[in-house]
Amino acid sequence: MIVLSTDRLSISFGALRAVDRVSLEVEEGLVFSIIGPNGAGKTTLFNVISGLYVADEGRVLIAGEDVTALPPDKLARRGLSRTFQNLQIFFRMTALENVMVGCHRHEATGLIADLLHLPAVLQQNRRSRERAMAALARVGLASMADQPAGGMSYGALKRLEIARALASEPRLLLLDEPAAGCNAVETEEIKAIIRALAADGVTVVLVEHDMRLVMNVSDCIHVLADGHTLAEGAAAEVRNNPAVIEAYLGVHGTREAALAVG
Amino acid sequence: MQDETLTPAARPIRSRLASLRRHPLALPAALTVLVAVTPLFLASSYHYRIAALVLIFALACLGLNLLMGYAGQISLGHAGFMGIGAYAVAIGPAHLGLPSWLSLLAGAALSALVAFIVGRPILRLKRHYLAVATLGFGLLIAIVLTNEAEFTGGPDGMAVERMQLFGWTAKGTVTWYWISAITFLLGAKLALNLIDSPTGRALRAIHDGEVAASVLGVDVARKKLAAFVLAAVYASVAGSYLALFNGHITPDVAGFLRSIELVAMVVLGGMGSILGSLVGTAVLVVLPQTLTVLHDYEHMVLGLIIICIMIFLREGIVPTLAAALGARRS
Ligand SMILES: Nc1ncnc2c1ncn2[C@@H]1O[C@H](COP(=O)(O)OP(=O)(O)OP(=O)(O)O)[C@@H](O)[C@H]1O
Ligand SMILES: [Mg+2]
């Protein structure tokens, strides 16, 4: 089944066409990567898909349903979750509380019940706490549950964001550069998490500059440059595509290109 | 103090104390003891009067703190809702023949409705823009209360009938101390419940990152509105109490200065601290009374004290002291 598809999706910022008629189809349970040089429009594409930006043209479909103009919270309720390239952490909350917010879409108590702490709320709190602890354990942060997020290291925060997204139990997860700024060990952990997710049937869309990671985990790779699609295919195809190599060498990503080719 | 420096016997006591402090009923229990013990130190009707005023304003600050300290949204017009509550218990019995308690509830419902209608467009604004818009709202209420003289008595205000319940009349400073104390405790418990609930976590998430909250499924506009409505109800009840307690009310209750005072109480005591709402209010109600002995220098000294508190306890009194004591924020 196609979980996510975009149909000639476009958005402009003034004269800059940051995403230019991008069409893609993501199969359920696969790891689908989107790569491209800096400024190619990867994050912008995520922002449009997750409802933060409204597309100028084109459509976004989740499981065949048109969700193009839906706000982010409605999309979340349909099982879409994401992480951010530049961290978006709730710094005044503990690690566990951050992840508990991830459970929000499953929490169904009303304002009055919350004020009165009715039994349903206490039960909900317990359930969310358990779910959040499980998500923290999954990214190896269980021991930091009660730490204020404001005091955690960058690598830990990266994984905290993943745990928070996992707590929402998404069917479709968008990861924007999860390994950026992580050391080799942390990158390995992230790789293992992505693999495990895919094995559980979660569809992962990955934006990442670490080509070793991308080539390793992806079932399909979609290449963007200057907002438009350059190529799509399995790792080996994309790696040897002359247009892709040129796009990387032509712009900034010399290091990535070397990795991609090598 | 490092744990290593403690004798072995002292360590379990310390950790037991720490876990006691973290118990969900620790703060409600402490607040209950506090308001129960305070009368031992109140020597006169005047003292009771000040204490009751502290509790009434602290009630309004509880709501405002949910909005500012937890959801991160400012309101510079919050006294407007105190005004609605105050005039509800003045106008209800005088012009509509309603009993005071029913007028109080009607005032709270009206405040909630007004907050719901006004909040929708206003809460889309951010920071300074939200501040100015709420300020405008507060001014509007104050002007309406001043201008509708045939109902409100205009700038001179109007008398407020005493509240009667089952033939019993609520009057006297001691009675009002206990009424406000019990209501404050109730308000504090509800606020604490909310914080430790899905809605409370969503509000705190909005404070730190609206974008992240929204992609996790939080309906940001709706949650902000809920906090605004709730804060309005707290303020409205506080306004009703103030009117019933004083027996007389003027449009000043809804004035700009009152709104600023409420914000100052919340910030001074500590944003996002329930105990802070009480402490900040106590400081700003009690200090001016004690400083009157300084005559001409009263306001100058008060201003200096406020500045010093904000410089040296920049997170507000309670959170800063709590952090210094190594306690969790409460
Ligand atoms: N909100 C915005 N307003 C104006 N321009 C924007 C905005 N967001 C992105 N852009 C521009 O759109 C282009 C695509 O940016 P985007 O962040 O999507 O790139 P990216 O592929 O994620 O790059 P990177 O690999 O560096 O993260 C860039 O030229 C960027 O400057
Ligand atoms: Mg990006």
Verbal overview:
- The complex is a heterodimer of chains A (262) and B (330).
- Chain A has 262 residues and is an alpha/beta fold.
- Chain A has helices at residues 42-49, 72-77, 95-102, 111-116, 119-138, 154-167, 184-199, 211-217, 235-239, 242-250, 254-261, and strands spanning 2-13, 16-27, 31-35, 57-62, 65-66, 80-82, 172-176, 203-207, 220-225, 228-233.
- Chain A has two domains: 1-79 and 171-262, Rossmann fold; 89-169, no CATH class.
- Chain A has a six-stranded mixed beta sheet with strand order 6-7-8-3-9-10, sandwiched between helices. A four-stranded antiparallel beta sheet of chain A has the order 2-1-4-5, with helices on one face.
- The two termini of chain A are 33 Å apart.
- The mean pLDDT of chain A is 89.
- Chain B has a single domain (24-329), classed as ABC transporter involved in vitamin B12 uptake, BtuC (Orthogonal Bundle), CATH 1.10.3470.
- Adenosine-5'-triphosphate is lined by residues 13, 16, 18, 36, 38-44, 85 of chain A.
Write a concise keyword list for the protein shown above:
heterodimer, A: 262 residues, alpha/beta, Rossmann fold, six-stranded mixed β-sheet, B: 330 residues, mainly alpha, ABC transporter involved in vitamin B12 uptake, BtuC, two-stranded antiparallel sheet, 4 strands, 3% strand, disordered N terminus, binds magnesium ion
SSE layout:
The complex is a heterodimer of chains A (262) and B (330).
Chain A: E1 2-13, E2 16-27, E3 31-35, H1 42-49, E4 57-62, E5 65-66, H2 72-77, E6 80-82, H3 95-102, H4 111-116, H5 119-138, H6 154-167, E7 172-176, H7 184-199, E8 203-207, H8 211-217, E9 220-225, E10 228-233, H9 235-239, H10 242-250, H11 254-261
Parallel strand pairs in A: 3-8, 3-9, 6-7, 7-8
Antiparallel strand pairs in A: 1-2, 1-4, 4-5, 9-10
Chain B: H1 10-22, H2 26-37, H3 45-70, H4 79-96, H5 100-122, H6 127-147, H7 149-152, E1 158-159, E2 163-165, E3 168-170, H8 173-195, H9 198-208, H10 210-215, H11 220-246, E4 248-249, H12 256-269, H13 274-291, H14 298-312, H15 317-324
Antiparallel strand pairs in B: 1-4, 2-3
The structure holds adenosine-5'-triphosphate (ATP) and magnesium ion (MG).
